[in-house]
Design a protein that fits this description.
By secondary structure, this protein is mainly beta. The protein folds into two domains: 118 residues, Immunoglobulin-like; 47 residues, Ribosomal Protein L24e, Chain: T. The protein is built from two helices and 13 strands, in the order H-E-E-E-E-E-E-E-E-E-E-E-H-E-E. The strands form three sheets. Strands 2, 3, 5, 7, 8, 12 and 13 form a seven-stranded mixed β-sheet that branches. The longest helix has 20 residues. The chain is elongated, with a radius of gyration of 20 Å.
């Protein structure tokens, strides 16, 4: 057992050094507990908005009596594209059992299982005035060599009146959640807050939906 612990510690050090040396976009690590009554993360993850890609590492331990299958989703508005990868050891030393992961779902979780997920997040461009995700039919206009999209003529008009107020707001800001749900009951078993913030946090954006 002592040698297994040493090997585990050594691998953790190697992984941590590699992660510190190479960051994909903007990256963060969150630790949490998966529980039947709804687990929580130790702290939220913070990202600087405006990047083209982010990486979120999420590690969690399953506490008894929970067992079952868990669906993992990135929730927030506007929706972001993302890919979830299950971190499996390059060399399986048999230190602990691993659940199966397929199509965003962890299968066969049992008490005291430890899981690690790597989430690659690809934020969309948004209307800098109202924050709506850009769609192909949106109006396009360039300002200082950068193209912006607008859901309506009203948003475009607001931009033209004071473009300097909106040039840093064409990316999502605010709170998102990496959410874990028990597939049988649909109850939350863990939520990890992901907060995207920049020079302008978007609090003064008008909200409207078509």
């Amino acid at each position: 057992m002592r040698y297994k612990n040493l090997i585990t510690f050594g691998l953790a050090v190697v992984i941590s050094l590699a992660a510190a040396h190479h960051r994909w976009g903007d990256s963060s690590h969150a630790i949490g507990l998966i529980t039947a009554k709804g687990g929580k993360a130790r702290h939220p993850s913070f990202f600087s908005s405006g990047k083209t890609r982010y990486s979120q590492i999420a590690t969690a331990t399953v506490l008894p009596p929970f067992r079952g299958d868990v669906r993992v989703l990135l929730e927030g508005d506007p929706k972001m594209d993302y890919d979830i990868h299950f971190a499996e050891p390059v060399i399986d030393l048999g230190l602990h059992r691993l659940p199966h992961f397929r199509n965003g779902t962890l299968y066969g979780l049992q008490p005291m299982d430890r899981i690690a997920l790597w989430v690659m997040i690809h934020p969309p461009r948004v209307d800098p005035v109202c924050g709506m995700r850009c769609e192909p039919e949106f109006i396009r206009e360039s300002f200082q060599g950068r193209e912006y999209c607008f859901c309506t003529e009203g948003c475009l008009s607001s931009f033209r009146q004071a473009p300097e107020e909106y040039t840093e707001k064409d990316h999502p800001n605010g709170k998102y959640t990496l959410a874990f749900y028990d597939t049988q009951s649909s109850r939350s078993v863990l939520k990890i807050p992901l907060i995207f913030q920049g020079k302008e946090d978007g609090k003064n954006r008008p909200s409207h939906h078509r």
